[in-house]
UniProtKB/TrEMBL annotation:
It comes from Streptomyces gossypii. This is Phosphomannomutase/phosphoglucomutase. Pfam families: PGM_PMM_I, PGM_PMM_II, PGM_PMM_III, PGM_PMM_IV. Its cofactor is Mg(2+). Gene3D superfamilies: Alpha-D-Glucose-1,6-Bisphosphate, subunit A, domain 3 (3.40.120.10), Alpha-D-phosphohexomutase, C-terminal domain (3.30.310.50).
Length: 454
């Protein structure tokens, strides 16, 4: 019996192949997904990892065995899978381990209209069925009595690209020189088609699909993985650089100097553009984005709503409030016009449109959206997450001029600084983010909290 506690996470399935899971388990997941969602038809896609085609086809076998018709869309980005789910009105499954190393793979699942499947929205039930069937030791899921479903193949890349281009008008912008680092991930598959016909001179880096990631990890959140992009932007004299993660659902931006642009600044920029189209609308931001995000939302006539970190919370809040847009510090960007799903590609198109619609450099454009100093995320390994977090909370409880909230971890806010301390769900870590009006204050608060963590 497989130990699913190691691979079924809060929002997806993820683990080492074949050590922790394999095609046999993938088939069980496909059958369980259909049983839990009650789907008569589903759509399935996969990334460029060597194990992805076999795993996705095994999942499809399990699904057709439970009576569902399966459309395989083959190689795709995660947001391309969300497009297929939304446009076809079908539940979907994407085989990817995002930015994880080559030996990992996983499944991101959604209901029709790209609605998320997480622990509270079906994933725990799926896990329970897979555990039950795995323990029974059968060669596959038990027969359902339903007639076997059909299997078909469809390419959605052209339709995905065309749809994104209907959401952002780039025809009137000035020509731009853009470096894109796909990290040998799915951006190498999607960018050429999305950018086709745009006023963009594209310099492509690492567009060859290679799940062994020969150049660097496809995780632009780690500064060492954007060093090549930064150097190329400076060397090429580009207007900006874009870096996508492995499954190309997140996009990171560097300016004409090669300096990183914070995801909070991108969130504020895109929010202002979306609010120009929908005055008074709601914009979602998680509790770790900069103070600048709610400030810009209010200045643009919108209503900011703060939520927990994580795509399931963002998507739920967007659905509940009718929000037009949502952004996270991790460079996930969510759009009402994209079924409330996250798409880094659409955020990238907004940045191109904003930059190309005026004459100045990107550094000047984003300066008004990047108003504070920040620490970035600092991870501390601890013996006891709860005890370390409690020590920090005790140190600030009752302090004059300071407020505490526990929407997601511990957030402590003062007049000129704030910090958030969150436990990792998967590792013995506490994650600290600090922001302040002055860099010296960031350093002071950071050092104080790290000393309390021990």
């Amino acid at each position: 019996m497989a130990d699913l506690s190691q691979i079924v996470k809060a929002y997806d399935v993820r683990g080492v192949v074949p050590d922790q899971w394999d095609e046999g388990l993938a088939e069980l997941f496909g059958a369980a997904f259909v049983q839990v969602t009650g789907a008569g038809a589903i759509v399935v896609g996969h990334d460029m990892r060597p194990s992805s085609p076999g795993l996705s086809e095994a999942f499809a076998r399990g699904a057709t065995g439970r009576g569902a018709d399966v459309t395989l869309i083959g190689l795709c980005s995660t947001d391309q899978l969300y497009f297929a789910s939304g446009s076809m009105g079908l539940p979907g499954a994407m085989f990817t381990a995002s930015h994880n190393p080559a030996r990992y793979n996983g499944i991101k699942m959604c209901r029709a209209g790209a609605s998320p499947v997480g622990q509270d929205t079906g994933l725990s039930e799926i896990r329970g069925l897979v555990e039950e069937w795995s323990a029974a030791g059968s060669a596959g899921p038990p027969a359902s009595g339903a007639p076997e479903g059909s299997l078909s193949r469809q390419d959605t890349l052209t339709d995905y690209a065309a749809y994104l281009r209907t959401l952002v008008d780039l025809q009137a912008v000035r020509p731009l020189k853009v470096v894109v680092d796909a990290g040998n991930g799915m951006g190498g598959h999607t960018v050429p088609t999305v950018f086709e016909g745009l006023p963009v001179e594209l310099d492509a880096m690492y567009f060859e699909l290679d799940g062994s990631f020969p150049n660097h990890e496809a995780n632009p959140l780690d500064p060492k993985n954007i060093v090549d992009l930064q150097a190329r932007v400076r060397e090429y004299g580009a207007d900006l650089g874009l870096a996508f993660d492995g499954d190309a659902d997140r996009c990171f931006v560097v300016d004409e100097n090669g300096d990183p642009v914070s995801p909070s600044a991108i969130t504020a920029l895109v929010a202002a553009r979306e609010l120009a189209k929908s005055p008074g609308a709601t914009v979602i931001h998680n509790c770790i984005t900069s103070w600048s995000v709610p400030e810009v939302v209010r200045e643009s006539g919108g209503v900011p709503v703060r939520t927990r970190v994580g795509h399931s919370f963002i998507k739920q809040e967007m659905a509940a409030t009718g929000a037009i847009f949502g952004g996270e510090h991790s460079a996930h960007y969510y759009f009402r016009d994209f079924w409330n799903a996250d798409t880094g590609m659409l955020a990238a198109l907004h940045v191109l449109a904003a930059l190309g619609g005026q004459s100045g450099p990107l550094s000047a454009l984003v300066a008004s959206y990047d108003r504070y100093a920040s620490s970035g995320e600092i991870n501390s390994t601890v013996q006891d997450q709860a005890a370390s977090a409690a020590a920090v909370k005790a140190a600030y409880t009752g302090r004059e001029g300071v407020t505490l909230d526990e929407l997601d971890g511990l957030t402590v806010t003062a007049a000129d600084w704030w910090f958030n301390l969150r436990p990792s769900n998967t590792e013995p870590l506490l994650r600290l983010n600090v922001e302040a009006r002055e860099p010296s204050t960031v350093a002071e608060v950071r050092d104080t909290v790290l000393a309390l963590i021990g």
